[in-house]
């Protein structure tokens, strides 16, 4: 015969809670404090004295789709495994607070059973014994249900995201330069629109980048003019670079590597956007971005030594400076006179009435975008192939063949892109015309340097090389020492 003891004579148990709140957009989810209050009332009714809880510091998911780790859950599992749990009962507000993964839940039940611990679920009003087959089945059924609901929820989210992406709907945090438009009744995000105060900053950023301004110069200028981020701090150059790559400003949504037409109006002209993307993705720009310091001279990357073919640097041992062969010191020549000659040739060419029609690009920006997309894909494939670490001879041969196949394709795409865009680049940097001299003087050195790099080539005005003079011979005029190599 079983004797039921009065409540006051029952054996009191100790319990430790695991408290976790999920990220919840509905606002109906109970907070950790609310869960604890419910647990405390239920524990009191069932004769459980609560000890120190395991409580997650922030909202975090317990599903298999979670991206953040549950730190306190890891501590709980470690304590159970090492016998440090220090209580008789694990107290949960509901089963899904423990886990929404069946395997993880089953492992926890095994540890509880191995150490003779119980599970109290406040929403059930019951205490379960994992060693009892019926209780264990009930708890496993709860885990199956939780994982199933979690999977359905994740599938709905993925479908909604895919549907929103297909419709070109905005997603994520509204970027600087745009502002969200919400339904006044439901609060639902409708679309984005240009922010009248901030959108002009974005347009200026793209426009000046195409004109050859550097990110560092832009950052300094924006700070001096009081143009700051939403948090009131100045824009660093690295953030301006990130902003300059965002397709959202051209009215595109990026989804799984694919550009989709957005439902919002672009705040940057798409031809301008693609011009900037091509400039930023070019190998020359990437190399410059990695070098410290700022651009100081227009011609040092363009003119070369006619003796060894090496690059030219600048020495300031003489007043005004002199150009010097960087490799072996083969040649030296006064800098100001060379600059005067080169500037005269460039500006004379750009001021000619017939040049504008020759240089203005007539290529459709859609064709440029197509070649850029192809080039980006080929570069990614080549980079992945070069970064692989084959474990067998067969794999090594396969990747070697892939690299051999991709390398000329990348070079061909780069050449096609240059053919489509070089004239347009020049017009964006320095538009030809009668007042080109004033535009040249007001342009940053970086822009003038790019113009020189485009024009002082064998295909256009000629590649400029500096010839050597006899040490004791008559002084040769600077103009005669400049060798202009032109394409056949």
Give the N-to-C terminal Cα separation: 113 Å
| Helix percentage | 40-55%
Classify the beta-strand content into a percent band: 5-15%
* Biggest sheet descriptor: 6 strands, mixed
Word description of this protein:
- With 488 residues, the protein is an alpha/beta fold.
- The protein contains 17 helices and 16 strands.
- Strands 1, 2, 3, 4, 5 and 6 form a six-stranded mixed beta sheet that branches. Strands 11-15-16 form a three-stranded mixed beta sheet.
- Helix 4 runs antiparallel to helix 5 (133-166), helix 9 runs parallel beside helix 13 (365-387) and helix 13 runs antiparallel to helix 14 (393-429).
- The longest helix has 37 residues, at 393-429.
- The protein is elongated.
- The model is unreliable at 1-10, 24-28, 62-67 and 289-293 (pLDDT under 50).
List the helices and strands and how they pair.
Layout: E1 13-19, H1 32-45, E2 48-50, E3 54-55, H2 71-82, E4 89-92, H3 95-98, H4 102-114, E5 118-121, E6 126-128, H5 133-166, E7 178-182, E8 189-194, H6 199-210, H7 215-224, H8 237-243, E9 252-255, E10 258-261, H9 270-281, H10 283-290, E11 304-305, E12 312-315, E13 322-325, E14 332-334, H11 335-350, H12 355-359, H13 365-387, H14 393-429, H15 436-442, H16 445-455, E15 463-466, H17 478-481, E16 482-485
Parallel strand pairs: 1-2, 1-3, 1-4, 4-5, 11-15
Antiparallel strand pairs: 5-6, 7-8, 9-10, 12-13, 13-14, 15-16
Characteristics:
488 residues; 17 helices; single chain
